[in-house]
Here is the input.
Amino acid sequence: MSRIIATAAINGAYKLVEKAETALEAALGSNPESAAVEFPNTGYFLPIIYGTTGEEVKTLGDCRRVLRSARELLPPRVKGQHWVPYLGHTLDAGMATLWSEEVYEALKYLDPAKCPYTKTVAPTDSNLWLGAADDVIMRERGIEFVDGTAPGFAAVVGAAPDSKTAVRIARELQENNLYVFMCSEDGGRRFAEQLAEENVQMGWETRLVPFGQEISAAVFALGFAARAALSFGGVQPGDYRRMLLYNKYRVFAFVLAMGTVTEEWYATAAGAINYGFPVIADTDIPPILPTGVCLYEHVVPNVKHDEMVKRAIYIRGLKVVPSTVDIPVRFGPAFEGERIRKEDMQIEAGNPKVDLPSFEYCRTLPTDKVEDGKITVVGPELDALPEGACVPLGILVEVSGAKMQHDFEPILERQIHTFLNCAQGLFHMGQRDGNWIRYSKEAFAAGLRFKHIGTILHAKLREEYSAIVDKCQVTIFTNREDVEREIVAARAAYAERDARMAGMTDEAVEVFYSCSLCQSFAPNHICIITPEHPGLCGAYNWLDGRAAFEIVPTGPNQPVPKADPTDARLGQWRSVNNFVFEKSNRKLERFSAYSMMTDPMTSCGCFECISAILPMTNGIMIVDRDHPDMTPCGMKFSTLAGSVGGGNQTPGFLGHSKMYISSKKFVSADGGFKRITWMPRKLKDAIREKLNARARDEGIENFVDMVADETLATTEEQVMEHMAKVGHPALTMEPML
Ligand code: SF4
Here is the structure.
């Protein structure tokens, strides 16, 4: 253990505890002890403090108590002659630092008018700094840590020597699918500002997240990691050991320190090392090479800028398999969220706002009709089009394979959106005959053309779906008459698919499919996906499960035989229960496919919605994760998610997808859709058509209008008043409890 590092980290910790104490006293000068302290829209309070101590910091008075604990945790200062500073002392100093920094940052939210953060998902025209991520962001992004599209994050502290180097490092991190969390400054320069100088698009969508100008903003990154453990890992607040170990083994994060390492940086880095996150620095500081708290080295100095990312990935023990798509721009999920504004656009194709036909369609052909790798552009290529042009678009993907089935076509077709958006400077929206793409001027200048749509789709479909796709050819149409001709067959196929899926019922199949993808975060969680009950994240339906099993027979989606029914009303089968018992690490003995009251499915944390019983209404409310406000059950989505998630079975509460709400099997054992008494207005509008159609089948017209929303009711009593007014069916149903 370096004496220099320990000395600096402990000194830094003293400074930062004091800084937070001073800020707190200033806040108490103009606010009572009871003044509310919180990060926006979160059920995790101040998440590092909550995760490590279980303390629910809600007021200035609570902050005072936490800072007292932080001061008590500070180790003795290092004296010239005494060699006391060992790793334990330094780590304690790091934790005291994080608590103090978290309080210090939370105090910035006390006066909304003075808050330095945008509280948005991307920088605004006048402010680069986003501040704390709310729970909506946490849940949306958390799924990427679950499914592996984002293996971790780099916390970038300081600034690169120049803006071009900053862009190179950021792009390399993005290409490795990592999030980039930025804070602090070096010599008046900041990494995020350097990216802004180069017009790099930042925000959660592009995984380049400017948190804050001070080193204390590093707590937003570490708080995100703490919430990952609490939200997806089933770690209980205060179980600091499990929280830190969870991060060490499951969240692949590291710190890139660029510039002069101050005592405050050392102290914060010591906090990060507690999580098992190593520090890679570009300056000549003492190393900490032995392994222990981190998987490999803890502090690695003097790394050249063009080696920093590779070195960090190696030291953190992260295995990244870079994609090998041969196109002239960068490619990776981090570019998925890029938007191309009109002024940056070279051309667009298929914009639905303009009268232009467009489609994308995947179909299976006999093997002799597919020439693997053949890419054809029918109509003008990009070079033949003037800047700003808008043209029709047809993307026809034809595949063959011994194991290919028609049911897999929509699954492959859905990937077009994901794959094309991974190309830097290519933007894709919509699906089927509502698709739309834009090329940026930069991508065009780099050489990206229409033909590369084919290159991307061929490479990715062959790479990720090799078990079912033996051959793939792609044709891109950019002439109106060609698109109008080809679209006829595409539309006929869409209609036929819709009819097939709509007719699928649980009764008609012999097997369901499991999904255990979320077990990396919620070890006991298992989704059972049936034709009428999709995965609770909304991303996987029964056909997806079946295709995924065909593609990777040993993967997270396994067939679950549906045999030996024990309770048809609840949806229980002995074979399913046996499967769930084994796959939930023997934690769950029974599982009901159709009930939220008796043995409901576990909830991992990725659910789109939560249903919760509202006892007074004899019904349930549903809240989706986009609704940040209070609900009639007295909890916000984030608080509900905290209590329901983590792989627990919680009778009376159920995590589920939006799609499931209009399913015939939606909590059918408990009375079905007729129990729904409250939903946020936006959710009502999003599912209005389907839910009304479902209700019409049972003789109820305009059911969605019978459901209260936040504009009509915010308490259970008000929900009941609305129900009485509209004659809600739950009023006459048998008691739920
Ligand atoms: S289907 Fe279930 S287990 Fe699979 S990713 Fe979605 S929520 Fe997680």
